[in-house]
Design goal:
With 256 residues, the chain is an alpha+beta fold. It is built from 11 helices and 8 strands. It has 2 domains: 96 residues, no CATH class; 134 residues, Serine Threonine Protein Phosphatase 5, Tetratricopeptide repeat (Alpha Horseshoe).
């Protein structure tokens, strides 16, 4: 995490007497980094790609708004404008052929009626590509995926992020409740539900969800930090200290 801060991909705010507070976008980027590590992408490759990406992006582009994913053994980056490979700078075109036209065009993908045999991975990729340019269409696609495959954890996580970004945190909480019914052992589902609870002002619900996320994944750094800040806010000093201590211990271990 410290390297991501140094590279400028996350920009936490220092709160007097409370430590760091990360935005929802920062938390999603950190989650992406954790997923890349879980996908066994070498840390050196992740950091190299991030450096190359930061060097190639104009300063006015919000780096927290991009999405970094693993495709096989390579990293790719998707923004609202493009999809590319930072190691080579090569664009990855999300293309469809327009019927009756002799050239290839990039077309917005409309929501499709769900049919048996639909390629959910393709539909998921299309939904991701439309999150910025056509959020309503992306939401429809994610919801179609969840009708077809209620255990599709990434669809819950991406759609919940979109809902929170749009200020629809109550809807995100409801979505994550469904996700937890089908994916009860996914720590990120509980973590994101906690963040959504915070967005609604439900501190108690957020703390319950952070604790459950940590029960499932005790080394979830961001959950310790967020829980510590909330416990400090509500005057639970001992619990705040316990989570701050865990956060600092894990943070020190990551920086080695």
């Amino acid at each position: 995490m410290l390297r991501l801060i140094e590279l400028g991909f996350v920009a936490p705010e220092k709160e007097e007497g409370k430590g760091w507070r990360f935005s929802f976008q920062d938390q999603v980027l950190l989650r992406s980094a954790n997923e890349l590590r879980a996908a066994r992408i070498p840390t050196r490759q992740i950091l190299r790609s991030l450096r190359l990406l930061k060097a190639s992006m104009p300063p006015e582009v919000p780096l927290a708004g991009i999405r970094i994913t693993a495709e096989g053994d390579r990293l790719t980056v998707r923004s609202a404008e493009a999809h590319w490979e930072p190691e080579t700078g090569q664009l990855i075109l999300d293309l469809q052929l327009a019927a009756g036209v002799g050239s290839v065009s990039r077309l917005p993908a409309p929501p499709l009626p769900m049919q048996s045999g639909v390629d959910l991975s393709d539909l998921f990729a299309r939904a991701e590509a439309l999150e910025e340019s056509a959020p309503d269409a992306a939401e429809d696609m994610y919801r179609q995926i969840l009708v077809e495959e209620p255990t599709h954890a990434h669809a819950y996580l991406n759609l919940g992020f979109m809902l929170c970004e749009a200020g629809r945190c109550h809807a995100a909480v409801e979505l994550y409740e469904d996700g937890i019914r089908f994916c009860p052992d996914d720590p990120l589902m509980h973590f994101n539900r906690a963040v959504a609870h915070e967005g609604t002002g439900d501190v108690e619900g957020a703390l319950v969800s952070y604790e459950e996320a940590l029960r499932l994944q005790p080394d979830l750094l961001d959950a310790h930090r967020n829980a510590a800040l909330l416990y400090a806010d509500v005057g639970e000093k001992q619990k705040a200290i316990r989570h701050f201590s865990a956060f600092r211990r894990l943070q020190a271990g990551q920086s080695l």
